[in-house]
Each structure stands twice: as C-alpha cells, then as structure tokens.
Write a structure and sequence with these properties.
CATH architecture of the largest domain: Alpha-Beta Barrel
Strand order of the largest sheet: 7-6-5-4-3-2-1-8
Number of domains: 3
Number of helices: 18
Structural class: alpha/beta
CATH superfamily of the largest domain: Aldolase class I
Helix content: 25-40%
Strand content: 15-25%
Radius of gyration: 26 Å
CATH class of the largest domain: Alpha Beta
Number of strands: 20
Largest sheet: 8 strands, parallel
C-alpha cells in the first residue's frame, strides 16, 4: 500500500525556498507528497532543497520525482545524474521514488538496487498526446522493471477514455492511473473510488492538464472522504470552468453533513457524458449552456413545465440510468425580478432565445408580463414569442422603445469576455436591468445601465435561487440557503 492518504500533494517550484514553502503548506492537509525535483533550476538548487528537507525531516510519505525532459519532465541531466539525485532524495527522507520507463528500461536492475535500494520504486509512463494503443502491453512493460508500484498517465479526450484507463486498476494493488485533460478532471477527483492508488493535486503550480488544486480537492470536493457510498452530482456544460455550482452545492452538502459530492463536467459530447453516468454513479446533474435544450432528446420523462419551456437545467437519475428533467431557472427568474417590480402588466424585453431565455420568457409571461423577444436569430425569436404569446422585435429602433425591465439571457459578457455587452448604452431605456450572468458579478451591460441610473440586478440572485431549488429536488430536504449563498459570494469576491 502506497499510503493511507490517497491524495498526493504535488510540490513543484523553480527554487528551494518555494519548494520548502509548498511542502510546509501541504503537510497539514495530507501526509503523502510528491517532490518534483525536476522543476528546480539545476542540480545546485536540488541539492539546496534536499539539505533543507533532511533538516526538517517531516513525518510523511515523500515521493521523489526527477523526470527527464525526454519523458515530459524538466530535468536536463543524464540518467546517471538523475539516479544520483533520486539517491540523495532517499537519504534526505523520501521513501518512494518515481522513475519513468524511459530511464528505468536503460538501467540494469542490479544498479538500481545498489543506488536506490533503500527506497520503493514507482515505474511510470506518460502519454501526453493520446491514449496508448494497448494499455495491457503498457502495463506489461512497466512490470518488467519489478517495481513496487506502477503509474500510467495519459491524455484523455473523453470520459470513456478516462474510464478505460482507470480500469487498469481492477484486481491490482499499487496501480496509479492518471487521466489527463480538462474533460476528465472529475475522474481525478473520483480516482481513488475508481481504483487508483493515488490522485495528484498541486499545492500551487499545475504539473498536468485537468488537475484540481490541493485546496480544491480537500476543501471544495472533500476528495479524501469520497467512497463507493458517496452520491455523485455535477454540472455539465461547455465551457464550465467559470461555474460556481460546485461551490454552491458542495457547501449545501457540507452544511447538512451529507455524503455527496458535486463536480464540474466539461461536456463536448452529450453521449460521452450520458454513457459515463452509470459507471460514475451519478445521481443527478445540472445542465448549462449549450445543453439545456439538446438534453431533452435523452430524457426518459420530463416535468410538464420544463417540457413546455423546451429547456431543462436539472436532471434526476433514477435506477442508475433513467433520466428525469426539470427546470428551476423559472423559480430563479421570479425571485430575482418579481421581488423588485410588479410583473403583471409590465413590459419586459428579453435578449436571447436559448434555454435560459425560454425559462425567463415562460416565467414572466405566466406572471402576466407583456414579453418582447430580441435575438440574433430572428426565426428563434419569433418561435419563442409565439410560444408565450409575446412579441418578437427587431433591434433597429430599439433605442426609441421603453421597457419596465430588460433581461439579458445570452452569455455575452460572461467571463472571460467581460468587456462585451449585448446592448449599447442608448438602447437601455428601462427601469430595471437584469443580467442572468453571475460571473463577473457586475457585467459590462450592468455597468452601462448603472451609469444611466437604472436599477441593476445580478444573475447571482437567479443562480442561487435556481441552484437551491435543484438541491432540494435531488435531496428531498430544505436547502441550507445561508451557507450556500455565502460560499458563492466568497468565491465571487476571490475572482473579481
């Protein structure tokens, strides 16, 4: 067994002082730590760090890695120098060392035993471009070096590929499977549950694509507590990195002491994600752009309101594979706008005609507002207007019209394109401006409106309302709104 702590902190920096600082930061959180010696700027800096390590000598499971450039690392020295650095690391207190197959295959086992016999060897291989053709052959090659453990890291462009890599661990002990890439980031969080002996998380500097930081792994996702009993939820979208849904929902689970985790899934292909639901044990998920409408084709049943809206943002998984759709954006709209202006009889302009716009339009129309739709695609605007008994309007002449409220239901202005606005200042003739975007909290559109003295409402209000409604659908319990809201607001303060 590699270690009791299956979350391995990765310490990587160019200088010894920074490496030591990261090491000390990691120790209170996990006792399993990989030291990326190859990141240090040369042999002298490695020696300086190892002298500090020997003095501090923390009680932890330390893994020394000095990966050469030929294997995707940063160390420029020869194999002989690499082995000497690993030997020094063992003398300084490391108990394991990671030696890539490119070096291990060129060194006689007898020499390894003489130089590194005091430590336990992990033989590793890394495929930075794509999965290898034969994982079985890869494992067979790694085992020829007679290591105590093996590690296979591979770039995975789908959840299916990541799951195939993790299946290497079935029936084997001390096998580390590392899916690399943004699409498979959730698999890194679930890696131990799926059989991998370790899951790596950088203290500061990412060393591979798709890594969650040590802080995120332990505090946001509580990955060290995930077991086979843990219920898995998530959000699917493209892009997804901006989403604060993990902060919202995980705060709720932690407040209620529930054994559950909520993960962000970057989904390019709906079919790839849907095929992974059963293997990952997904119990429910949120749906955001661009999948709110296309997910309908894959549902086994749908709430009548969501069906009439034609967009779903919440899915419950029953029996492992049956999908049931709901729409809680509707609730979010009514809470965000209805508390500020009387909706019945108000004239409201909605910019956009996608999934969010449909929920906004149906909510406002049923509340008695006169709804106008403005969209880039005129045919979509007309179709939505017909569905709710509203009016599709053209942008020409918009500056001469007045509305009680204007709602932006497009992603224009969302992080990272924070300098864009779907409307110009002269077109903002209204009493209230509501932007469904919540990141950034104050969009370019909201800034333009505020300069004109218009009351502005952030998408944060809708986001929290729809999210807490989702949480209640999944759990059957009242949502702990206060800590969920606090988690979102704290996250927004940290990024803005």
């Amino acid at each position: 067994m590699l270690s009791k702590d299956h979350i391995c902190a990765v310490v990587a920096a160019k200088d010894a002082k920074s490496m030591t600082r990261q090491l000390l930061r990691a120790l209170p959180s996990t006792r399993t730590i990989e030291l990326r010696l190859d990141w240090l700027a040369g042999d002298r800096e490695i020696a300086r760090f190892l002298r500090q390590l020997a003095v501090k000598c923390p009680r932890a499971t330390l893994l020394a890695t000095c990966r050469r450039r030929e294997a995707g690392g940063r160390y420029r020295g020869t194999i002989a120098h690499q082995l000497l650095q690993l030997a020094e690391a063992l003398r300084a207190g490391c108990t394991w060392y990671d030696l890539e197959i490119e070096s291990a295959s060129k060194v006689p086992p007898e020499l390894l035993d003489v130089l590194l016999g005091e430590g336990r060897q992990i033989t590793s291989t890394h495929f930075f471009r794509a999965m290898p053709h034969s994982l079985t052959q890869t494992v067979r090659q790694l085992l020829t070096t007679r290591p105590a453990a093996i590690k296979v890291a591979a770039q995975c462009d789908s959840l299916a590929a990541g799951l195939r890599l993790l299946r290497l661990t079935r029936g084997r002990r001390n096998v580390i499977a590392v899916p690399m890439g943004e699409v498979v980031m959730p698999l890194r969080i679930l890696a131990h549950r799926l059989g991998s002996a370790l899951s790596y998380a950088p203290v500061e500097n990412p060393t591979a694509a798709g890594q969650a930081s040590l802080s995120e792994m332990l505090r946001l996702y509580r990955a060290n507590l995930i077991t086979r009993r843990t219920r898995v939820y998530g959000v699917i979208g493209d892009p997804i990195a901006h989403s604060l849904s993990p902060q919202l929902h995980n705060a709720g689970f932690q407040a209620r002491k529930m054994d559950a985790v909520y993960l962000p899934f970057l989904v390019h292909s709906l079919r790839d994600f849907l095929a992974a639901i059963a293997p990952l044990g997904v119990a429910g998920f949120s749906v955001t752009l661009p999948h709110k409408e296309s997910i309908l084709r894959h549902l086994d049943d749908c709430d009548p309101l969501a069906a009439s809206i034609g967009a779903v943002n919440t899915v419950v998984v029953r029996g492992g594979t049956k999908l049931y759709g709901y729409n809680t954006d509707y609730v979010g709209v009514l809470r965000a706008i209805g508390q500020r202006i009387p909706l019945r009889g108000s004239r409201v302009l909605i910019v956009g005609a996608g999934g969010v716009a449909r929920a906004v339009a149906f909510a406002l129309a049923q509340a008695g507002a006169a709804v106008c739709i403005l969209a880039r695609r005129k045919e979509r605007a007309a179709a939505l207007a017909r569905a709710i008994g509203g009016e599709a309007i053209a942008r020409a002449g918009l500056a001469r019209q007045f509305f009680d409220a204007i709602v932006n239901a497009t992603p224009v202005g969302m992080d990272p394109d924070v300098h864009r606005s779907p409307l110009e200042s002269r077109e903002l003739n209204c009493r209230l401006l509501f932007d469904t975007i919540y990141r950034p909290r104050r969009t370019k559109l909201m800034q333009l409106a505020a300069r004109r003295g218009i009351e502005v409402v952030s998408g944060v209000e809708m986001f929290i309302a729809q999210g807490t409604a989702q949480w209640e659908i999944w759990t059957g319990e009242r949502a702990p709104v206060a800590p969920m809201r606090r988690a979102v607001m704290d996250a927004l303060r940290n990024v803005i």
